[in-house]
Amino acid sequence: MATTILSLFLHLFLFSALHSVTYASDPPTVYLIRHGEKSGNPLDSGLNADGFKRAACIQGIFGADSHYKIGYIMAPHVNKKGQHRRSYETVLPLATDLGLTIDTSCKRNHVHCVADKIADYDGPGNILIAWRHGKMKKLVRALGYDDPPRYPDNRFDLVWTIPFPYNNITDIRSEECPGLDVPETLSIEL
User: Fold this and answer.
1) CATH code of residue 165
2) What is the spatial distance between Cα 128 and Cα 70, in angstroms, rounded to a whole number?
3) Are 130 and 90 in contact (CB under 8 A)?
4) What span, in angstroms and rounded, lies between the C-alpha atoms of 171 and 162?
5) What residue stretch is flagged as signal peptide (predicted)?
6) Do the strands 102-103 and 70-74 form a parallel or antiparallel pair, or are they unpaired?
7) What average pLDDT does the segment 89-107 reach?
8) Quick check: 151 and 145 in contact, CB under 8 A?
9) For residue 27, which of 36, 108, 146, 164 is within the disulfide window of CB 3.0 to 4.6 Å?
């Protein structure tokens, strides 16, 4: 009798262990985008009219019905003067639609803070990060990719796909926002 009960418990333990392994969620994929278009005024750190159009486009691209399944959104910390708010403004319509809070706890130069947040994330869905293009290469390096490309200065439309274990960009594509993005051949080496 004791052997039967022990055997039953062992089978239940193995079944529950296999069940949790089989149905455990996959690590999230990171999608990295540049903030929307900016004003030509160096004193204005917000989006211009095209930047707000891009924010609306991103809302559609990454929205609830998309295949991206975003569950966590990050943008750089916005300081008391409102500086560094472009990235936040770019993803705000999306975050509002998805019912998500934008994590702005990392300052724009603190890419290791972003990498730590990604490593610690255990929620549902994938991660969307809107950041300053000049820091994106360092950010991807902080995630573990040794030789990421540089984000082009003249582009605002590229989505970098970085799946777990975050040591490679597996796809770079245009957001293809109507009226903003002209299809062109990408010349970025992966």
Assistant:
1) 3.40.50.1240
2) 6
3) yes
4) 8
5) 1-24
6) parallel
7) 98
8) no
9) 164
